[in-house]
Amino acid sequence: MGAQGSAYPALPWGANGIEPIDKVEFMSDLQKAWNNDDVNQYKELWRTSWPFRESMIKAGDKDFDQDLLDDNVMGLIKNGLRHRSSIEWRQVSIEAARTFLYNEKARQTLVKLEYIDSLSLLTMSDDVGADVVGAGVAGGGAGGKEGGSEQVARNLLAVNIMSELADHQEFIQLLCRASILNFLCIVLNQVPQAAEKVTEIFVKLSNMEANLNLLREGSVGDILESTFKTCVYERPAAGGDMERWKMNVNALGNVARVLGTMIKYEHECQVETENVVKVFDRLGVPRSEDIPDCLKLLSSLARLFYWVCRMSGSVADRLQERLSAHEDPDYVLHVMVKLWTKCVDIHNIIGQAKADYQSIQMGGWSGSASAWDKFCTDDLDRSVRISMGSPEMKSKENSARSFLCYMNSLLWLCLAQPTLRWKLRDAGFKKLHLAFELEDPELIRVILSTIRHLVDSPAAQQCHELIEFFGKALTDYLDQAIEGRFPENQVRLLLDSLSILALQRGMQELFTEKRIWERLQKFRPEAFLRDPHRRVSRDKEFTRIEMVSLFIVAQVSVHPSNRMTWVYSDRLLAADAKWAPETQYPTRQNDFEPYLEVLVKDRDDTVRTVASLLLTLFQEKKFHQPAEEVAGTFKSVLEWWKVNSTTQYEAHRELLDNGGELHVRGLRELLDDAIRRRENQTALTSMETMKYCAPHECVLALSLFSRLALEPKFKSLFRDALEPLLGCVCSGIWAEAREAAATLANLMWMPDFKEERLVCWLKFDGPHCVAVDSANVLMPVKAGNPKAVEMGKGMYRNLWGVKFVEGSCVTLHPDGLQTNKVPGTLTSASASDTLHATSKREYQWLGTEPGPRRFTVTCWFYWPSDPTMDTKVLIQTTPPKVDTRGADPSTASVYVECVVTCCKCGAPVVAGDNLSSDAQGCTACGAPWSQVKDGPQEFVWVLVDDKKGGADKTRKTMKTPKLMPGWHFLAIVSSHSSSSKTFDGTKFWLDTWPVTLKQVWIKNDFYNIGNFTGKTDDGEGGRKPFGLIADFRIYADALSDNAVKALAAEQNSENHPDEIARLLGSMDAATILAQRLDVPDTAAECLRALGSLATLSSQRAKIYSVCGREVLKMLESPYPMIRRQAARLLANIA
C-alpha cells in the first residue's frame, strides 16, 4: 500500500498487481471465512481486495466500498473485533476497519462499535476474554517493559491507527479518555519505537483547546515534561542508530509543540529554558557540514521558547536561565544570534529560489548554488536529496518559515525589554522585519498576536522606535488588505492590533499622517455608507470589523492636535509643510460628523455610544452655555464612565464569573493593586478588559472630561469626580490612565472652583520656588539671584516672599502674557511632541472670551522702614526683538518712584532719573541733583496708560496714603464697560484704599515681574528691582470690589485658589500618579499633573520621595515632552 504520509493506511500485508473484485462474491467469501473460523482465509480476502479498492478510491470512485458498507460489511468486521478467543481475529478486523476510515459513514459506525476499545484490547494478552470489551484499559495495556516483539508490534499498530483516528473529529473525544491517555503514556514510557507516533497523537489532540484540560489533568503533562528533559537528541557518530535518532528528534519536536500549546493556553508546565537552549546550541548551530537542518524540531522549539517567554512575567529572567557549564552571561544571546543568522540565511535562500525557479529548472541560479544544494536535502539526513515542489520540500519550507516567524517574534519580545534591548543592538541583530514577508495565514496570526500583545504592554511602549516600527508595518498590512492580498481570516486581528496602537498618541499622529480614515474607507467601503437601512443585514463578524474600524478612527480623531485648535503636531508639520496647525482630522463637517450622525441610530450599543461621545466632544458650541446648563449631560457621561471604566475590571470580572452584586473598589484598594502590579511588573491590557469593560469608549469620555476641565466655569462639576479619576490613574489601562491624568492636570490649569480665570500665580512660597506658576499656565524663567525672605518677615506664617534685587526678575513668557490670549502651553502633553506644539497659539475658550481690557493684577509687597530712592518696577511689558524696527519699545507699566521737591523752585524731581552718572537735577530751575536730593521726599505709584496703543503712552501718577513699614496689598483692576456693573478704566487698590482712573488702561502685556530689564531684549537693565513681594496673581477677568477686599483681608492660605490641588494632595495623588510613569504616553500627562501638584508646598517632599529618582532619569528620555515635563516637575519641587 502507499508510503507513510499517504492518505491511505499502509497495511502489513502486501499485494502485487490489481485484480477486479466481485462485490457479491467478496462478501460471500468473507461470511464463509467467518463461519468456518478461518482467520487466514479472512485475512487473505482483505489482502487481495485492497489493491483494487485502493485504486478505485484514488480514482474518485467510492461506489464499491459504499456497496460493501450497504451490505453490512461492518457487521462482519464487528464479529472479528469481538472474537472471544483469538487476538489474531481482532487484529485482522482492526486492520480491515482501518481501510474504511476515509468514509464518514464508516467512521460513525466504528464509533458505535467501540473501535478504540478494540485497539486497546489488542495490546493486552492473548487470553483476555471478550467480556472486557468496552471496559477500556486501566493500565498495563502495553505489557511489560516491552513484553516481547509481538506485544511491541501490537502496541505500535495500535498507536499508528490511533494517530490516524486523531485526524478525524469523531474519535477525538474517545482518544481523550483517561484509559486511552494512560495507555499512550505507558507506551511512550516503555516502547521507544512508539515515541514519535505517540507524541504525534498528543499534537493532534492538543490542537483543540478543549482537550488541553484533559491532557493536563492526567499524567500526560508530567510524561511530556519528563520526555522533554530525557529525550536523547545528540546525533550519534557514524555507524550509530540514525533511525532511532530521527525518531527521537521528531518525538522531541512533537513534545515541544504540545508543551508550547499548553503554555499558550495558560496551562502550567515545567519547561527548563536551559534544555531548550542546549538543543538550540547542539542542533541549531551546526559544527560540521554533515549536520542536517533539523528545521521541524527547531521551529517547534522556537515556538515553545516563544510561548514560555511571552507567558512569563519577565522575558529577561527567562533568557538569563542558562547552562551552569557556561560562564558567559550572554551565552543564550550568542546562541540566539547564530539561530537568527541561520533563519535569515535560509529565508534568503528560499526567497531567491522562488524568484529564480525557472533558472533552477534550467540548471542555473543567481544565488549560491552550494547553499541551495545543501538546503535540498532531507530535514534529518543530508544524504537524502529532495526536489523542489515535492511534499518533503514543502514541509521543510513550512518549517523554515515557522522557525523564522517564532524566532522573529521572540526577538520582538526581547526588544520590548529595556534590559535586553541594548544587548540585542550590540549583538548585531538585524533584519528583524523579515517576519512581515511571510504570507502563511497562521504565521501572520502569530505575528499580529505578538504585536497586539506587545503594544499593549508598558515595557514595549518605552521603545518609541519599536512601536513606530509596528505602526508602519500594520499600516502596510492594511494596504494589502485593501488590495485583497491579505488573509481574510486575519483581518479582525489586524484591526484589533491597529485599534490598540491607535490608543497611543504617537500612533495617532502616525495614523493621521497616513490618512487612516481614508484607508479604512477603501478597506470596507460598504461599512462607511450613510444608509442606516443597510446596517440591518450585517452579520456578527461584519459588525465587529466595522466597530473596530470605528475605534481606530475615533482614537485618532481625539488626539489633542486633531480636536484642539491651539495644539498642533510637530510631526505632522514636519511631514507636510502644507498641513495647517488648526486642521481637525478627520475633516468634520462634510465627512466625519455626517457619518457619526448615522451611527448614532445604529442598532449596536457600542457603535451608538462611540458615535454619541464623539459628537458630544466635537460639537463644542453646546458647552458655550453656563455650567448649570451642561451639568445634566456631564453627570450622565460621568456615571456611565464610572460603571464601564477599566478601573473596575476586577469587580466586573468577579460579578460576571461568580454572580452577586458589583463591588466597587475604593481608592485605597485600587492604589494597593497598582503598587502590587508595578512590583510584579504586570499590567492590565486593553484586550483583556474588553469582555468586561469599555476601554475605547472610556478613553473618549475622558477626552471630553479633559477638555471641560480646562474651562474655569466647569471645574466645580468635577468636585465629586476627583476620587474616580485618581482611581482610574491607579488601575485603568494605560490609555485611560493617561486621559484621567490629563483631566487632573487640566483641573489644576487656571484653577479653581470659583471661575476666577487665574492665569498667573507666583506664590514665592520658598527660597527656590521663584519661577513657579501655581496657576499652571506659564513656565516662567528666573533671571539673576533674587533673595529669599528674611526669617520672620514672610507672608503667611513667615514663609512666603522673594526680594528682587539688582539684576533679578521673573520672565513670565518669552512673548509676554496677554490675558485675552492665554498660551496653551500646559494644556496637553504628548510624549513625542515638544512645547513648540502648544506654546505658539492661544487657548480657545468655551464661551465668552476675556476682553483685552478686562484683567486684574494683585500682589502683596513689603514696604521697608528706610526705602531707597530708586524707581521700583513691578511689571514690564514685552520688549521687541533687537532686529525689529519701529516696534513699540518695552515700558515699565506699573512701578513706584520717589519724587523729591526741589528746595529752590518747589518743582517735583524724580529721584530715580538722577541716581545714575548722567543725573540732570531739576529741569525746571536747573538746580543740580546734589542740591535737590535732600528735599522733601514722596513715593508715588505710576501706571502707564496705553489706551491709544503704540508709542503714545501717558504716565498716570497716583499719590496714595503714606505706607507704613510692613506688608501691603496691591490690586489693579482693569475693566471695559459691558454692563451696568462694570466701568471703563482702571481701579487701583492699595490695601483697602481704592482710586478709580476712568478711561485709563495699562497695557495687557506682562513680561517681567519685579524689575525692568531694558527697552529691547538685549537691553542692559535690571537696575530697578521692586523689592520684596509675595503672592503675585494675574486674572483674566475684572474682580469685584468684594473679591478684592476679601483678598486684602486674607491672613493665611486656607482660602487660596488651590483647593483642587489640596484636595488631590489629601487623596495621596502624588503616590498614585507616580505609579504610572512606566508607559511614556501616560508618563507625559502624569508628569504634567505632578508638576502642577508640586506647586503646593506640602506636596513637594512627598513627590520627590515617591518618584524623585525616577524623574531624574527621565531627564534623559528620548521623548521630548517627557524631558520637558520632568524638568518642570523638578524645578517646581526644588
Describe the protein.
The protein is of the alpha+beta class. Strand 15 (985-990) and strand 16 form a beta hairpin. Helix 15 (273-284) packs antiparallel against helix 16 (295-311) and helix 25 (464-482) runs antiparallel to helix 26. Residues 1-8, 11-16, 126-147 and 527-538 have low confidence and may be disordered.
| Radius of gyration, in angstroms, nearest whole number | 41 Å
- How many E strands? 18
The best one-word shape is elongated
Helix content: 40-55%
Hey, roughly how much beta strand do the residues contain? 5-15%
**How far is the N terminus from the C terminus?**
86 Å
Structural class determined from secondary elements: alpha+beta
The low-pLDDT segments are: 1-8, 11-16, 126-147, 527-538
Question: Please, how many helices?
Answer: 49
Mean pLDDT: 86
Tell me the major beta sheet.
8 strands, antiparallel
Mind sketching the topology for me?
Layout (H helix, E strand, L loop, with lengths): L22 H13 L3 H20 L4 H8 L2 H9 L5 H12 L5 H9 L2 H8 L25 H18 L3 H7 L2 H13 L4 H12 L5 H6 L2 H11 L11 H23 L8 H12 L10 H17 L3 H6 L10 H25 L1 H5 L7 H7 L1 E2 L2 E5 L5 H25 L2 H10 L13 H15 L2 H4 L2 H19 L8 H11 L3 H9 L2 H8 L16 H18 L2 H4 L6 H6 L12 H12 L5 H14 L8 H18 L4 H10 L8 H14 L5 H4 L5 H15 L12 H10 L2 H14 L10 E5 L18 E3 L3 E2 L6 H4 L3 E2 L5 E3 L24 H4 L15 E9 L8 E5 L15 E10 L6 E3 L18 H4 L4 E9 L8 E5 L7 E10 L9 E6 L2 E6 L9 E2 L18 E8 L5 H8 L10 H8 L2 H6 L5 H14 L3 H18 L5 H13 L2
